Amino acid sequence: MRRPVMLGAYVDRCTAVHRMDARVKLVALLLASVASFASSAHAGLAMAAAGLVVALGASRTSAREVLCGLRPALVVLAFSLLANSVVIVGQPGVSLAGLVRGATAVLRIVLVVGFALVFSSTTMPPAIADALASLLSPLRRVGVPVGDLATMLSVALRFIPITMEEAERIRAAQRARGARLDEGGVLARLRGWGQVLVPLLVSLFRRADELASAMADRCYGGQQTSLSEPLTSREVAVLLACVAWAAAAVLA
Amino acid sequence: MVEVQDVSFAYAAGANALNGVSLTLRPGERVVLLGRNGSGKSTLGRLLNGGLAPSSGSVSVDGETSSRQFARLVGYVRQDPRNQIVSPLVSDEVAFGPRNLGLSREEVLERVTWALEQCGIAGLSERLTAELSGGQQQLVAMAGVLAMRPRYLVLDEVGSHLDERSRERVRAVVRSLTADGVGVAEIAHSPQDLFGADRAVVLEAGRIAWEGAPTDLFGSERVLSELGWRDDVVAGALCGAVRAGYRLGPRPDEEALSQHMPQIDEGQAGPGRGACAASSLVAADVRVEYGEVCALGDVDLAATGLTLVLGASGSGKTTLAHVLAGVLAPDAGHVGLGARPVRAGQVGLVFQRPEDQLFCDTVLDELAYGPLAAGAVARDAEDAAREAAGLLGLPGELLSRSPFELSGGQMRRAALAAVVAARPAAYVFDEPTAGLDAPSRRQLQDLVRTLVASGTPVVAITHDAQDWLADADDVFFLASGHVVAHVDARTAACAPEVFERAGLLPPLSVRLRARAEGRSRA
């Protein structure tokens, strides 16, 4: 069964941002997060926001998707805006300085969500895993199993849709047996979830077991050839531009 | 050459799964391993690639005797592609093996391209694995194994989750591999898998019961009954043809085989015929959409007796199963039992692995769950549970055990009994026979026959039309969410053109039957 595209999932488009090396994008995301949170003056924040506009444009990600991404955090954001701007103690009313402070905080979060969304919707999951592995590779010297971590991440991402599909299938089977999974009080619902979770866990363990031997059959030992290409001069230029931009935003 | 000498193997604290088995597999040779579920075929396969080490005896691959080294030389492809695909992206998935071998980046990429081409799926390289159909996923899994350039290959029931067209594509890949000198050991369940094989090996309770040329297998009554192929239509035609001097070639010779098709038993009309219409399961103008994708459109279906729903993967079959069982509300149209709309819990729903829905502490609780949920008092629920256990042949002493302690076959029967115990007004079976051996398939067919005879409509959704056509009343063909044909089963059994209209490759039995009918009319 096909479901609508999940928020933040990879969107297949053909843009320069999609084609860019995942390591560059990952570093750029880190820099952008620093710029969004560490910029103090309004000019700095404006620069960071301008960066997001450029990133959205270059990756053809719509601003609407960013707003959708914020939906889960909406209550918290609204609360922080209110809490900052409404003065209760002393002379009750609305404080302009507080409103600005609240709006700044909200804007920072909007920016980070936007950057993260641009990254995740333009980068294939295995490329994210590989990029993470190559950025963490210095840790290998102190004994961190970086290759295993990257494979774990990749396998976990691969099993998300399978787990969802399996849960859906078991839910359907149990409902057909007369289980009422969405009715009754909290206790009844929890018991209902047991009817789905027990078989789901059993079946996922079976799958995991089989996957582990399938990986052993393909000689998995934790060390893999890296498939990332050396960075092109353009990518290096993008990286330097990002560093300059983040520094400017923070220092402005 | 792979040499297995006098090998025995026991899983922890169990009886021997294999007992004194010897086998050789030469380069370029294709050996088919047959036997019932649990006869030790997969265990033998795992020994060939070093996934398991023998308890006694020896295995060697091209002179190499350390089983740790076997994985490089012997590839292994499993039944369910979803359990062996590691990566979310096709090209990355195929690269997984070569990357583990420590090859250079260029060589890895070259092998990925080569392996995808070998499997005829070069166009899929940048797709997400989760989006592909089961058939495409299985070809990706094969490409992932081929990219390691194994000298031998073990195929463990690779076709059991696929439709006939995808199976044909897999067979074509295997033919080109053996032509290139790869030795293939193929674990299989169907007589059709014997075409083009060099040898057949039949396992029975962990021992080799028979070994020889595929043609000779059809001359041995004992082997045919061990495999449960006595009632199989294609096996029947092959037996007749072999007696008349036919030898199995690389592909079925349809003209020769069609002359030996067993006659349809006219007395054995579908048992559900004439069942009262009040109990029929009806879908009218059903429409289901996922976002912008139309999964089902204007589906009209009325099921009495045994109704088959056939269609390629992605045609909306599973969505239809959910809708008919009342667990998915259609966006338009309605589904009813007779005149009343259907609710979840009224229609029994059985998926491919029904044992994946067990969750209770004891088998009895599991069986009584449905009746209790429907509002029966404890005493009646227990009676219904015991009756269902009897129908499925579950011995009474198992009822107090945990369902997770049962053997695979017992678990499946317990899960089926749990559905039957609730006495639903109709049943929907979604791919119930995939991966089952012939005797288990027949057990399931017997159950369905019993249910239909009691006046309960049954809808079976399946890739294996061949197994069900003889018992069915009606056949609906589904293609991209629409019913493209609706014929009675007798017509479907000799009308390959209807299958083709739905984008399906007609089963061999249908092709043979059509030829035989055509000749008798001429």
Please describe what this structure looks like.
The complex is a heterodimer of chains A (252) and B (522). Chain A is an all-alpha fold and 252 residues long. Chain A folds into 2 domains: 16-140 and 229-251, no CATH class; 159-217, no CATH class. Chain A has helices at 16-19, 22-38, 42-59, 63-70, 74-85, 96-122, 125-136, 146-176, 186-217, 233-251, and strands at 86-87, 93-94. Chain A has a two-stranded antiparallel ribbon with strand order 1-2. Chain A starts with 15 loop residues before the first helix and ends with a helix. With 522 residues, chain B is α/β, with parallel strands linked by helices. Chain B folds into 3 domains: 2-258, P-loop containing nucleotide triphosphate hydrolases (Rossmann fold, 3-Layer(aba) Sandwich), CATH 3.40.50; 277-346 and 426-521, P-loop containing nucleotide triphosphate hydrolases (Rossmann fold), CATH 3.40.50.300; 358-423, no CATH class. Chain B is 35% helix and 23% strand. In chain B, strands 5-6-7-3-8-9 form a 6-stranded mixed β-sheet, sandwiched between helices. In chain B, strands 15-16-17-12-18-19 form a 6-stranded mixed β-sheet, sandwiched between helices. A 4-stranded antiparallel β-sheet of chain B has the order 11-10-13-14, covered by helices on one side. In chain B, helix 4 packs across helix 5. The model of chain B is unreliable at 267-278 (pLDDT under 50). The interface between A and B is large, with 54 and 68 residues.
CATH architecture of the largest domain in chain B: 3-Layer(aba) Sandwich
- Major sheet summary line of chain B: 6 strands, mixed
| Terminus-to-terminus distance of chain A | 50 Å
Oligomer: heterodimer
SS elements, strand count of chain A: 2
Provide the residue-averaged pLDDT of chain A.
Answer: 85
Low-confidence stretches of chain A: none
How many helices of chain B? The count is: 19
Q: Rg of chain A from C-alpha positions?
A: 23 Å
Helix content of chain A: over 70%
Strand content of chain B: 15-25%
How many beta strands in the DSSP annotation of chain B?
Answer: 19
- In N-to-C order, the SSE pattern of chain A is HHHHHEEHHHHH
- Rg of chain B over CA atoms, rounded to whole Å, is 24 Å
For the residues shown, what is the average pLDDT of chain B? 90
CATH class division of the largest domain in chain B = Alpha Beta
Report the sheet-strand fraction of chain A: under 5%
Instruction: Give the largest interface pair and sizes.
Output: A-B, 54 and 68 residues
How many separate structural domains of chain A? 2
Main β-sheet description of chain A: 2 strands, antiparallel
- How does the helix and strand content of chain B classify structurally? alpha/beta
